[in-house]
């Protein structure tokens, strides 16, 4: 099993979908099959985590020729960075399937399984063409889920996110193909393997253009301010499972892409783009927070909140010191858990009230104490509540920012203050404001508690005992960072 565990983790959901599709399974079998495939995948990733050596590099590698004459290979591997995102994917899928228990549309279930294969394959791919194929694969189910199962202007918003994402994808594809051609020019052999392409000595001008192709794809996916116009409409129109995937996983893949391919291929060139990314991230921290304060739609409000925190992750990544990098990696994980929790809670609000507008809500605390606790907990976790993982992560990034520059640190620190403002303002109106609804608001049932409790526990454990997790990534993170700083001479 060890030899092909990564392939099993990637393709088990797709294989399940294909088998159930061929036999034309009823919805009940689709629900069972999708949940079981996610549970088995989670167990495999848990086993892989216990076998993972934090002091080694790329592990569980699978490498086989695919299109031999073009140098395209089936090349997979996992290290501290991809393991973090892989754990998030597999941890979040079972709760999402529990949330979808009453969903009777077959296409919904097929798209979720295809989506899991797409995001997992993108995280584990070490061949750039293979990465690109999985990167595009994960877009298709999101387009279908928003365009077919969304609400409001869902078809327009689905087309907008696809067009913007394709713009970035095409620029990245051009850079990938040119890198493969450059490898052929230098060695006489085609290759798209990351470790081969990282050895190419590019001139400064060429490197700037090729890096821009990758960065455009990743900053749209995050999205950084200026590339964000698709975000709030898409979050507002998408069904809850799609919103959770976009916020908790797909947006993190944008940061993962900068980490894996930006620093993996263009270390020196990132020095050229660093000031731009720092400025966009700082502007995003404040702009998104202000938009969240003024937003009445809960989904859009936390879309802007996600944009603010993703800007914080991108800022920590580009600052290249151990505090900022540790905080960024930790925030990738903890924000994904908190974001998944709050968007699931917003979905439960919609199921009960048929609205997600703050002005139409109120009085929940007096009628549903369990619901109130979970809703408030996830919202405050987003804001960096002490005792949760988000607080640890944000504090590390702020310390790393102050080490680089006082003013960068100062503006970075305003993130926590701004988040507390919009979260407490929202909670006061939603949970404790006047009761604006005559419907019988039901508290959380047993199924809902089961799907939410693991997220709460993970956020508490990552906040109270971060030392349980840091040994998994600190040795390789420090080594990776030292290699980057050796190349760059440090980003001052």
Describe the protein's topology.
Blueprint: H1 5-22, H2 27-51, E1 59-67, E2 72-78, H3 80-99, H4 106-124, H5 128-137, H6 139-149, H7 154-187, H8 194-197, H9 204-221, H10 231-237, H11 240-265, H12 267-294, H13 298-319, H14 322-353, H15 364-367, H16 369-382, H17 389-404, H18 406-430, H19 446-464, H20 470-488
Antiparallel strand pairs: 1-2
Helix pairs in contact: 1-2, 1-4, 2-3, 2-4, 3-4, 3-11, 3-14, 3-19, 4-5, 4-6, 4-11, 5-7, 6-7, 7-9, 7-10, 9-11, 9-12, 10-13, 11-13, 11-14, 12-13, 12-18, 13-14, 13-17, 14-16, 14-17, 14-19, 16-18, 17-18, 17-19
List keywords for this structure.
492 residues, mainly alpha, 20 helices, 75% helix
Report on this model:
The chain has 492 residues and is mainly alpha-helical. The protein has a domain at 266-492. Helices cover 75% and strands 3% of the residues. It has 20 helices and 2 strands. The chain has helices spanning 5-22, 27-51, 80-99, 106-124, 128-137, 139-149, 154-187, 194-197, 204-221, 231-237, 240-265, 267-294, 298-319, 322-353, 364-367, 369-382, 389-404, 406-430, 446-464, 470-488; strands at 59-67, 72-78. A two-stranded antiparallel sheet has the order 1-2. Helix 11 (240-265) runs parallel beside helix 13, helix 13 packs across helix 17 and helix 17 packs antiparallel against helix 18 (406-430). It starts with a helix and ends with a helix. 52% of the residues are buried.
What is the gist of this entry?
With 492 residues, the chain is mainly alpha-helical. The chain has a domain at 266-492. It has helices at 5-22, 27-51, 80-99, 106-124, 128-137, 139-149, 154-187, 194-197, 204-221, 231-237, 240-265, 267-294, 298-319, 322-353, 364-367, 369-382, 389-404, 406-430, 446-464, 470-488; strands at 59-67, 72-78.
